[in-house]
Design brief:
By secondary structure, the chain is of the alpha/beta class. Helix content is 51%, strand content 18%. It contains ten helices and eight strands. It is elongated and about 60 Å long.
Length: 217
């Protein structure tokens, strides 16, 4: 069975080591090289010609998006998955414009990481639902999802945020919601914090009460 050869590009040594151990422990996958900067990953891409590069965005020298763009120009057959903690919509859109094949967050569950690798290796694109929502919000100017007019100000909740509110209203914990939505618990917790902030409330109990009042759930 041919192994999927992978190059990791991230300036955090501990993250690279953790990722390498996880990937190398599963049959069919092999880390063949590691890079700690944008310039280094470009050099190693040409030297090893990996099947897939797992690329962070924030790195010394060229950032991951710039490196991805150059690699795609030189070796278009190399597939690239951006793996980052950055949630800014501009970074996401810029990365996708660079023709990368995948985009996931570092706090994704292990099974989602391997799903992304498998999908991209098979010639498909892989973008998590959470990232798709951010891209849609950016493109449409955030005018999609569930709109609430509160004191003449339009507040928009994404479909994912509405899902989380619904599950929370049924008494499910963040961990249980994460399992149901195939997300990490940390991602659900971040969603909950963002919802509280967006609605200008104090806690999630108030969010659920507000959602009932407005007919969201």
């Amino acid at each position: 069975m041919k192994k999927i050869n992978i190059l990791i590009a991230d300036d955090h040594t501990m993250f690279r080591e953790s990722l390498k151990q996880v990937i190398n422990s599963k049959p069919g996958y092999k880390i063949i090289a590691e890079a700690g900067s944008g310039d280094e990953v470009i050099d190693l891409a040409g030297k090893f010609l990996p099947d897939i590069i797992l690329m962070d965005i924030n790195m010394p020298g060229k950032n991951g998006i710039e490196a991805a763009r150059e690699i795609k120009q030189k070796w278009n057959k190399i597939k690239i998955i951006i793996i980052t903690m950055l949630e800014n919509e501009l970074y996401i859109v810029d990365a996708l414009k660079s023709n990368v094949e995948g985009f996931i967050y570092k706090d994704a569950q292990i099974n989602e990481l391997f799903k992304a690798i498998d999908e991209v290796y098979a010639g498909n694109k892989y973008i998590t639902d959470e990232i798709k929502e951010k891209v849609i919000e950016y493109i449409t100017g955030k005018n999609y999802g569930r709109s609430i007019n509160e004191d003449s100000e339009k507040i928009v909740l994404t479909p994912r945020q509405v899902e989380i509110i619904k599950y929370a209203s049924q008494g499910f914990t963040s961990r249980e919601i994460a399992e149901k939505l195939y997300l990490s618990e940390l991602t659900v917790i971040k969603h909950r914090k963002n919802i509280i902030k967006k609605l200008g409330l104090k806690n999630f109990t108030e969010v659920v009460s507000f959602a009932h009042k407005k007919g969201i759930i």
